[in-house]
């Protein structure tokens, strides 16, 4: 028994087993239960967190590869819990900026309780009159990604034409709604009828199509954009990008947010139509949300009223329990999720 | 004999025979001599020009293909003279902006005398204390291309690292010199020892290499840019671009000016490393000089003093006579030219 009356509790964890090649499998992760003392070490400047919601995000695939030159972030550590964005309750704080009872979102572990020393990645949650899980999506990293990518990279103007791939995902559904709020014509693509219906009927896209049913993506894009695309919000890469490039309009902009079709390939597909960048004078710009978090306050001021007025909606795919987290994460790469994939650890 | 005493003279022409697939050959053009009346038609608002210098530019390959979706400009007309940039003397003018005796540069025909109706593409030459042929290169379209691409697209800062491919060409040699004048570290690549020597000894590049001698372009770039590339001025495309992408520094910029390695391929090479755009947050922007001619006055103000002070130098590869023009043009695609390829039609 621990001395000083500290409480020992069990801590279920999702452990990253080893580096992955190709498509990740559930068995690349394993569930384990360890015990944890619900007390920060003496002198710690970190936080003891009770995790509530965890976020499954496509970029996490990069962390499953042993250090790669073109990786977003550090690799996961085999034998340690998966790390990702989440929403948590502060149980104990060694950092004067946080107090016990605070709600936070940011990087945490895939486990019931985490001790976080890298507190600079955590944002305090002040607005709790929205679903807390939104801080894994709409009001968290994916939301900021959509906001920065669309407004900062694409410089959209009323009346422009916008194409969003992976459009029903955590980021895409918001980009489409931002585009409509800006007065753009917006078309999205996704991989099932259910998702296409969501795009048209729930998120207000002008048009949407199932890319799996289009033998000729170029022809599909010509159909929806007879006069070309001003803005492409790129989530997919590979063949989709190649089909988009010749359909860009002069002075078009491509925000390169992700390339989910490429993450599990041993070698990325070759993109051939890059001459379009010259002849259409297109700007293609990659970005990472980390560079835009200074806009988070402005983002909340913009988006919270839209949510309350019903002008922005958000669809989540919620699974319950850490036991289901590995399958939820893997499902991103086959498009199993409908909307933002969230894992509930605890509803408190 | 023509009435009214108008002079009929012979007019040697380089005729475009028919659309080209793959590498162009000299026999895709033919020399012919027609006769021309040295008088504008009654009521013409055009110009009668005596052509002095003609410019061979890589983009001209696109005009040899039957209408292509990703072409810069209209195709040449089979049976008519090649059209390109040149320097000419105005013999007769139906346009109040030009007078007989004026020197102009802009689009003209590959022939001794041309009647130009599209006079909006012509710039009057005011500074004649530099070699007139410079208006096909340093002070013409390629010069403006280097200026707009480097200063407007790349936003260079002192101390940044710059890589230029096809660096001894009409555009590349200037980009390197602009970069040095900005206080950048500059490396260029070219396809022969002679060109590499020019880069280092004549144009002041910090380093230069022969890409044909590098089995591993990525390794070569790592050697010259151990800390990465801030600015890539892209003239080549394909494998070169693929090697550059992972070597870009965070927030790097790529000005996509041309892709000469791709122009003669039936299908462009696939570029695989585009994920680098995201993880390095790179901006890759295509441009065409046509969008920047409003800066031509500012460009001259900048560059003319540099020329007079000997701070900018320029190497031309000059051939004499229209008879040699087809070989000169074709030579661009095998890198036969050393510096800007010019054809002299007449030294007056």
Automatic annotation (TrEMBL), chains A, B:
Keywords: NADP, Nucleotide-binding, Oxidoreductase
SUPFAM superfamilies: GroES-like, NAD(P)-binding Rossmann-fold domains
Annotated residues for binding of NADP(+): 170-171, 191, 195, 211, 235, 257, 263, 287, 289, 337
Gene3D superfamilies, A to Z: Medium-chain alcohol dehydrogenases, catalytic domain, NAD(P)-binding Rossmann-like Domain
Ranges that cross the membrane: none
Gene Ontology terms for molecular function: 2-alkenal reductase [NAD(P)H] activity; nucleotide binding
Catalysed reactions listed for this entry: an n-alkanal + NADP(+) = an alk-2-enal + NADPH + H(+); an n-alkanal + NAD(+) = an alk-2-enal + NADH + H(+)
Top-level lineage group: Eukaryota
Domain Enoyl reductase (ER): 46-343
Enzyme Commission numbers on file: 1.3.1.74
Top-level EC class: oxidoreductase
A Pfam family hit: ADH_zinc_N
Family, similarity comment: Belongs to the NADP-dependent oxidoreductase L4BD family.
Quaternary organization: Homodimer.
Protein name: 2-alkenal reductase [NAD(P)(+)]
């Amino acid at each position: 028994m621990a001395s000083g009356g500290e409480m020992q509790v069990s801590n279920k964890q999702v452990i990253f087993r080893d580096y992955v090649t190709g498509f990740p499998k559930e068995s690349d992760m394993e569930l384990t239960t360890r015990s944890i003392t619900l007390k920060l070490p003496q002198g710690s400047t970190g936080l003891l967190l009770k995790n509530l919601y965890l976020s499954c995000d496509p970029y996490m695939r990069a962390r499953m590869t042993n250090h790669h030159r073109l990786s977003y972030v550090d690799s996961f550590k085999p034998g340690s819990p998966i790390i990702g964005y989440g929403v948590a309750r502060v149980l104990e704080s060694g950092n004067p900026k946080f107090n016990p009872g605070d709600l936070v979102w940011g990087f945490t572990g895939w486990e019931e309780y985490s001790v976080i020393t890298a507190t600079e990645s955590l944002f305090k949650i002040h607005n709790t009159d929205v679903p807390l899980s939104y801080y894994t999506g709409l009001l968290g990293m994916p939301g900021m990604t959509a906001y920065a990518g669309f407004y900062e990279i694409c410089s959209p103007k009323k009346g422009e034409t916008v194409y969003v791939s992976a459009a029903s995902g955590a980021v895409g559904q918001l980009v489409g709604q931002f585009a409509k709020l800006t007065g753009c014509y917006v078309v999205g693509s996704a991989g099932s009828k259910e998702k296409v219906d969501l795009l048209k009927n729930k998120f207000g896209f002008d048009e949407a199509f199932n890319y799996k049913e289009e033998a000729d993506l170029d022809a599909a894009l010509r159909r929806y954009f007879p006069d070309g695309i001003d803005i492409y919000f790129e989530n997919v890469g590979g063949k989709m990008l190649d089909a988009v490039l010749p359909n860009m309009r002069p002075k078009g902009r491509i925000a390169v947010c992700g390339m989910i079709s490429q993450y599990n390939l041993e070698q990325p597909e070759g993109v051939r139509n890059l001459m379009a960048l010259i002849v259409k004078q297109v700007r293609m710009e990659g970005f990472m949300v980390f560079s835009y978090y200074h806009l988070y306050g402005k983002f909340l001021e913009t988006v919270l009223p839209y949510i309350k007025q019903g002008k922005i909606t958000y669809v989540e795919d919620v699974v319950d329990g850490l036991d289901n987290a590995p399958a939820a994460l893997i499902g991103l790469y086959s498009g199993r999720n409908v909307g933002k994939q969230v894992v509930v650890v605890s509803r408190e």
